[in-house]
Amino acid sequence: MSQQNEQLHAMRHTAAHVLAAAVQRLYPGVRFGVGPVIDNGFYYDIEFKTPISDNDLKVIQNEMLKIVKEKHEMVREELSIEDAITLFKDKGQDFKVELLEALKTKGTTKINAEDAQDVDLGSNTASIYKTGEFVDLCRGPHVANVSEIKAFKLDKVAGAYWRGDENNPQLTRIYGLAFLTKEDLKAYQTMMEEAKKRDHRKLGKELDLFSFSDLVGPGLPLFSPRGTIVRSELTRFVWELMKPYGYERVMIPHIAKRELYETSGHWDKFQDDIFKVKSDKTDQEFVLKPMNCPHHTQIFASKMRSYRDLPLRYSEVTTVYRDENTGQLQGLTRVRSITQDDAHVFCRLDQVEDEVKAIYEIITKFYTAFEMPLTIRVSAHDESAMDRYLGGLELWESAVGQLKKVLDDLGKEYIVQAGEAAFYGPKIDFVATDAIGREWQLATIQLDFNMPARFELEYIDENNEKQRPVMVHRAILGSVERFMGTLIEHYAGAFPFWLAPEQIRLAPVSDEFTGFANELRTRLLSVDLRAEVDNSKEGVGKKIRNAAMQKTPWTVVIGQKEVDGGDITVKVFGSDEDLIFSQEEFIEKAKESAKLPV
């Protein structure tokens, strides 16, 4: 993290404390949950005696400004866990006590990432910060004085279950924005106004792409025929990019014995997020797969491999399942059923560099097609907390070094972020920037020496000796659901021609011309173009507007001229200029526009 980013993080964290201090002044007796830093700001979860709304934010913000002007220092103190529990019990802060009890009995690995911002990582002590009269449980970091908070604004009020569990009390979550300068804050607010118009949840409903059902359950999206087309075209595009690199398709079941994930290490790390399945016919415990990689290791292990067989590149588009807290679910960007564009490469150590470079090429080709610039970071281990990872420090340093060497050889700029690696290996993360400047971490290349060891995978080398393969995990678009939500907002629902669920809308001037429109549609369908006929009783102007509402790329009015074989006039969505083709040219141009951008 750069020095500027560290300063911004500390400032945002301090702003959360100032928010809580202001609320305590205005609403005595409130109980505080957690107040972490998030992208672009902070929030605090608070239990109020009487509900508040967005209308109350101005008063709270004015009180925050007063506290900032009072120039309180952020004073840190270390307490034993027991003394901290006593302190917060005396203050009636039951949620803080619960966090401390969890820290005392279970350790920090059992406390979720958001809560972990508010407890010290030591198992015997806790740190508190004093902001004037306000005292909070927190590990920091913070700026030295609240006067260093330069540009902030309370944003909105929302409901949030305590610790994201719908069985817990519902708290009021107050969101705030915070930036280093007022100019940065204003630019972000402008971007967010545009983001509201592009919200994939709103556009997904308007464009009939996906829905949710209370009977099916939260976080389990249902994709309409139109939405399914978009998903299928995205995964087809990835496959076409991958094929030249020697990938092969595999298929695995959606459940497995829990022992598979105990062996892989996922069970110990993520058992609280795994769906468990019981059979009436056996005592064995099964799980809905949260990851595909352990299954793929067993395909590799199904027979003895030779060094001549490597690399083996297994690819699959399949759904995994995570028991996410209901309060953390959000449209397509956070769901419980996650369709992964997944692939795993099993290779020799001397093949790692070429395989990582090949995946890098696929990723850059993919995102170039969407005009989404990429920045690169190497997510490495935290040397001071190696108990969070599988494998020793020497192995990790070697793996990180290999990833950095690939990027250095390619001449690419990147940053290294310690502590951001997966538990089984370091990775190269690709951060894509969308049309309005937001950043999304989507694609990744992960190097894994640990899982092959845990599953005792082997191949026979040229000296007829057994060796351990290296496993490379890769995701191009990552979660299909999350990428689709990102893409809807990137394009504001106006997909490029090749990706649009409906590419051409035929609008007959009257019923007299519907027959010809249907014939033309049949011709278009026969060459794999997606076309529909608007045979409603609406006037042609309304039909054109309806097509535009659905953001259909091409709209063609069908009248006597077209029936007589005349030129086709195409109204292009988002353009004031029409395209004019002969009828044969029209189909050829449409076919050309529908080609995948490979």
Automatic annotation (TrEMBL):
Enzyme Commission number: 6.1.1.3
One Gene Ontology molecular-function label: tRNA binding
| Cofactor requirements of the protein | Zn(2+)
Tell me yes or no: is Aminoacyl-tRNA synthetase among this UniProt entry's keywords. yes
Q: What keywords is this UniProt entry annotated with?
A: Aminoacyl-tRNA synthetase, ATP-binding, Cytoplasm, Ligase, Metal-binding, Nucleotide-binding, Protein biosynthesis, RNA-binding, tRNA-binding, Zinc
Q: How is the cofactor bound?
A: Binds 1 zinc ion per subunit.
Q: Where are the transmembrane segments?
A: none
Q: Which family does it belong to?
A: Belongs to the class-II aminoacyl-tRNA synthetase family.
Cite the NCBIfam families for this sequence.
thrS (TIGR00418)
Could you describe the subunit structure of this protein? Homodimer.
Q: What is this protein called?
A: Threonine--tRNA ligase
Gene behind this protein: thrS
